[in-house]
Design brief:
Blueprint: H1 2-37, E1 51-53, H2 60-68, H3 74-79, E2 95-97, E3 150-151, E4 155-159, H4 160-164, E5 167-172, E6 184-188, E7 199-210, E8 217-232, E9 237-245, E10 254-256, E11 265-266, E12 275-282, E13 295-298, E14 311-316, E15 331-341, E16 346-353, E17 362-365
Antiparallel strand pairs: 1-2, 3-11, 4-8, 5-6, 5-10, 6-9, 7-8, 7-10, 8-9, 12-13, 12-17, 13-16, 14-15, 14-17, 15-16
């Protein structure tokens, strides 16, 4: 028992002695550094002491404590050593600097040119000769956007004859359901008249359009989904390249001529004839009442004297609550502007609407002799 106590006493005595010697040694080192500094504000180091060659086992924390008397200087020391990408990982052979470079030398030295007074004529010339003028070759073309003009829509109408004469995309080289730009398309159509080098619109055929009064089949509602260029025209199957996919293009879509006003604004045009017709159908998936900027199809076309930009007034009659129509006058509820014209029908946009319009509403074009005002 006494032997165990004696051993513990000797161990504690040795530990205390070691701590005292370490403290004295540290104080001597700190005092030595303060003597070098000449004051307590910082440490002044000789050129030999400003750098240290890293040895195995060194850390930036320990080196700052050894050279600068405080390990907490390590962020500052790291800023002096841009070659150290990570302060926690330094390797034998690295050189660590403990003070900034005394003077930052310029990266590039260039000669400054001075202009002596009277050495160069800096006065503004009174007249410039034609030879010194900058001239432009060609002409500047300007385009004025017509008032109340509307962009040609990507939805529209194709007559049943045109759909029958169109080519249909039957296949492609791509192993994909939806085709994208620059894909090769194989187009088949017995009556299709496709020419190599020509661009065509790619349409997705929608529902059939029938006249609300007579029931006559006028054609189909279509959506323009892309543009294609025919690269090889064949008797049965032609090859085309998908130039631009506006919407997803797939097998089964058809190729037909581009609309006349595609990519352009349609401006109001003076009505030259007087006509009466009907709203046959709507474009897209709209089945209910229609408002401004919706597309509709009317049963009057180029053979009736209709041109793009003409306007129709939409009329409705009756008491909307009691449904009474007898002896009540017609009221103008909307204005349509023709966007694209076919032989027997036209696509028009609702540009002004005071009330919802519906399929079967009566439309009227009045010969004005002046540009229609919307």
């Amino acid at each position: 028992m006494n032997k165990t106590l004696k051993t513990s006493h000797d161990f504690l005595h040795g530990l205390i002695l070691t701590l005292l010697l370490g403290s004295v040694s540290h104080e001597v080192r700190a005092q030595d550094l303060r003597l070098k500094a000449g004051s307590d504000s910082g440490v002044t180091m000789t050129s030999e002491e400003q750098t240290h060659l890293v040895r195995s086992g060194d850390t930036l924390w320990d080196l700052c404590g050894e050279y600068l008397n405080s390990s907490w200087y390590w962020p500052k020391v790291w800023s002096y050593n841009p070659q150290l990408t990570n302060p926690h990982w330094i390797y034998p052979g690295n050189e660590v600097r403990f003070a900034p470079v005394e003077q930052q030398l310029p990266v590039e030295i260039s000669q400054v040119t001075t202009i002596e007074e009277g050495g160069e004529d800096l006065s503004i010339p009174g007249k410039i000769s034609d030879a010194e003028l900058v001239q432009m070759v060609g002409s500047i073309q300007t385009h004025r956007v017509a008032a109340d003009s509307v962009w040609m829509s990507q939805s529209g109408f194709l007559s049943k004859d045109l759909v029958q004469r169109s080519g249909q995309i039957v296949s492609s080289e791509e192993e994909a359901v939806l085709l994208s730009d620059f894909d090769n398309l194989y187009v088949k159509g017995d009556e299709a008249q496709l020419s190599a080098g020509e661009r065509y619109a790619i349409y997705r055929v929608g529902r059939k359009i029938r006249h609300p009064i007579s029931g006559k089949n006028f054609g189909y509602a279509v959506n323009l989904v892309g543009l294609a260029e025919v690269t090889r025209a064949g008797e049965k199957v032609s090859t085309a390249r998908l130039v631009r996919a506006i919407r997803p293009v797939s097998r089964g879509d058809i190729l037909a001529p581009l609309p006349k006003n595609y990519g352009r604004r349609v401006a109001p045009e003076a009505n030259k004839v007087s006509l009466t017709g009907y709203v046959m159908e709507t474009s897209g998936d709209i089945l209910g009442p229609l408002g401004e900027y919706n597309l509709v199809f009317v049963d009057k076309g180029s053979k009736h004297g209709v041109v793009a930009g003409n306007t129709f007034k939409v009329y409705q009659r009756g008491d909307r609550y009691t449904k009474r129509t007898a002896e009540l006058p017609d009221e103008v509820v909307a204005t349509l502007m023709v966007m694209n014209v076919h032989e027997e029908a036209s696509t028009a946009m609702v540009v002004v609407s005071a009330r919802e319009i519906s399929v079967g509403d009566r439309v009227e074009m009045t010969s004005e002799g002046v540009t229609a005002q919307l």
